[in-house]
Design a protein that fits this description.
Elements (H helix, E strand, L loop, with lengths): L1 H10 L4 H18 L7 H36 L5 H14 L11 H31 L12 H23 L9 H57 L3
Helix pairs in contact: 2-3, 2-7, 4-5, 5-6, 6-7
């Protein structure tokens, strides 16, 4: 099929394939942008097309880059790569979820997936975020360690704010009942104050993340508009439209 498609494209006049590609990209871009006017058949067509292409590409990539090389290793040397056979069996058991009498067999690979996923998420949060943040917060607050003059005081103030910010954010997730006595009341009062400051910091962080996501969306929209202007409009102008 690939050879037939290549032969067909080679028989077209020069530049025809590029012209078709520009038209397809422009029409799909306009179909996606039509969502501004609400859900419509053009947007749904483009959505289903993109999802189908992405699923097909992911399936082909998974087969050629992940499954097929490991299947070759398993068939070539089963004694050395026996564990790949175990993984393939678990993967096949997932397919039994579509068969009602055998659906219970899919619980085993699902439990493995959920367990490994939870362990990776917890381990990644600890080693990638929590522990590095704690290490970064344990710094010197002595200005002399950062240099002389105002620069040393500025770096020391930055270290103090970083440490206090980390403690404040962690105080948000402190849940304990207040005990009796003035010391317990004072301790919980400090924690409540730090918790409020931590919530403000969390809201600022979430706002920054949302702003970053919005800017990314605007960047994608800008790139598509630039594509239309530089390619499609230019093609329409050359065709006298």
């Amino acid at each position: 099929m690939r050879e037939a498609l290549s032969n067909l494209l080679s028989q077209l006049p020069p530049g025809t394939a590029e012209t078709i590609g520009v038209w397809v990209a422009a029409l799909l871009t306009l179909a996606v942008l039509s969502y501004i006017f609400g859900p419509n058949p053009l947007f749904r067509l483009a959505e289903h097309l993109f999802v189908g292409l992405a699923a097909g590409y992911a399936g082909v990539l998974a087969w050629r880059q992940v499954l097929w090389p490991r299947l070759q290793l398993l068939l070539g040397d089963p004694a050395a790569y026996w564990y790949y056979g175990l993984f393939f069996v678990l993967g096949l058991l997932l397919l039994t979820r579509g068969v009602r009498p055998l659906g219970a067999l899919a619980n085993l690979p699902l439990s493995v997936l959920f367990g490994v996923g939870a362990a990776l998420a917890l381990g990644g949060a600890l080693t990638g975020s929590f522990i590095p943040q704690l290490r970064a917060a344990v710094v010197s607050v002595v200005p002399v360690d950062y240099g002389e003059g105002l620069a040393g005081w500025a770096y020391a103030l930055d270290a103090v704010l970083l440490t206090l910010g980390t403690i404040a954010v962690l105080s948000v997730f402190h849940f304990a009942a207040q005990g009796r006595g003035p010391l317990s009341a004072l301790w919980h009062g400090v924690l409540r104050t730090l918790g409020r400051a931590g919530r403000v910091l969390l809201m600022i962080t979430f706002g920054a993340l949302f702003a970053g996501a919005a800017l990314t969306s605007f960047a994608v929209l800008s790139s598509r508009m630039v594509y239309l202007v530089q390619h499609w409009f230019k093609l329409l102008d050359s065709m006298g439209l």
